[in-house]
Specification:
Elements (H helix, E strand, L loop, with lengths): L5 H15 L3 E7 L2 E8 L1 E3 L4 E2 L6 E2 L5 H13 L10 H4 L12 H5 L36 H4 L16 H15 L3 H13 L46 E2 L1 H12 L6 H7 L4 E3 L4 E3 L4 E2 L6 E7 L2 E8 L4 E7 L6 H14 L1
Antiparallel strand pairs: 1-2, 1-12, 3-4, 5-6, 7-8, 8-9, 9-10, 10-11, 11-12
């Protein structure tokens, strides 16, 4: 690959964000040195409070990377094993989960379990899909009624199928095995060693003033937020908030072995599967470029579209986050086209 024209990439991203009328933030940095950082649109439309480069945004499923790292650290410490049968910790809960499902199956989306939020079903991102009142979903055990009653879809280890419920089950077994709450585990095993002070699982009904509200519709005149569409506090399958700068700091901590050791890090970014829907490879908790060095996390939900990519060789972090469900994707597309043309 030729030397990357970062100024050209920044220009392409800025142009795409402006043409899209994006609401959110875009950033590029090399090993923490900012190349480009710009915010667009409003964090609060009703009060016309603009997004800034310091705004905290919801990450949706990007947060699955945090869950994966916390569980991996429990494996490193001997609290869990990759081949620990989930049933040995769930006991009689969630009886439809196959007895052969292991921690590794859940971490690699190969468990085959039925999903409470199956993305292969015909649903729109602004549908009301949660079957438990959202205000009750502040702790992991509260998700059990939603996770129950979904039949196994395929044999464990048979195929890759992206699974939100699998990461909620990971949160459950991590709590039960460690004796710590999910949010305590993430703080202690991911955020603290990475030095993240503005990243966390915030309640949607009491967001601090530096957070962007998530909007259901791209129309900037619509004031309808996502507060009734998502758990009041995120958990194993998503829902953390962060900034573009702290996501870069997260990647560098991960790459430098400050969250999990180098051997575990390398294991997690070794390709295991191929996700046809995303045209990307998948390791353990992380997406990987189809043909390239990048490690990726992405999120999509009511009021959220988010993506971040780290290149371990160049130490380039690229992040695009929007507080609408579609705002980020064309900007991400511009990024990927630019990289492809530069190869």
């Amino acid at each position: 690959m030729n030397t990357l024209d970062t100024e050209g990439l920044a220009s392409a991203l800025d142009q795409a964000a402006r043409l899209e009328g994006m609401s959110g933030a875009v950033s590029l940095d090399i090993d923490g040195d900012v190349v480009f950082a710009r915010a667009y649109g409003f964090a609060d439309r009703a009060h016309e409070i603009p997004n800034t480069t310091d705004t905290r945004f919801a990450l949706a499923s990007m947060s699955k990377g945090f869950t994966a790292l916390a569980v991996a650290s429990l494996v490193t410490d001997g609290v869990l094993r990759w081949d620990t049968p989930v049933r040995s910790i769930l006991n009689h809960d969630l009886p439809l989960i196959d007895d052969a499902v292991t921690v590794e199956h859940l971490m690699t989306h190969t468990s085959g379990i039925g999903d409470y939020l199956d993305e292969e079903d015909d649903w729109d991102v602004d549908d009301y899909v949660l079957t438990v009142p959202v205000h009750e979903l502040s702790a992991t055990e509260a998700f059990l009624p939603m996770l129950d009653g979904h039949a196994q879809k395929s044999a464990p280890g048979e195929t890759f199928s992206y699974n939100n419920g699998g990461f909620m089950v990971l949160a459950l077994i991590a709590e039960r095995a460690s004796g710590r709450s999910f949010h305590e585990l993430i703080d202690e095993r991911v955020f603290t060693p990475a030095g993240l002070t503005r990243t966390g699982y915030l309640r949607l009904d009491e967001l601090p003033g530096d957070c962007a509200l998530g909007y259901l519709h791209e129309d900037p005149t619509s004031l309808r937020t996502n507060v009734l569409h998502l758990p009041v506090r995120g958990n194993g399958d998503g829902g953390a908030f962060s900034t573009t700068a702290e996501l870069s700091q997260f990647w560098r901590a991960f790459a430098d072995g400050r969250i999990v050791d180098a051997a575990t890090r390398d294991l997690m970014i070794t390709p295991r599967s191929f996700d046809e829907s995303e045209d990307l490879r998948y390791g353990i908790g992380f997406y990987l470029d189809l043909d390239g060095p990048g490690v990726q996390l992405m999120g999509y939900d009511a009021g959220v579209s988010a993506w971040t990519r780290f290149d371990p060789g160049t130490r380039l972090t690229s992040t695009v986050i929007s507080n609408t469900p579609e705002g980020a994707w064309k900007v991400i597309g511009a990024h990927n086209r630019f990289l492809a043309a530069s190869a």
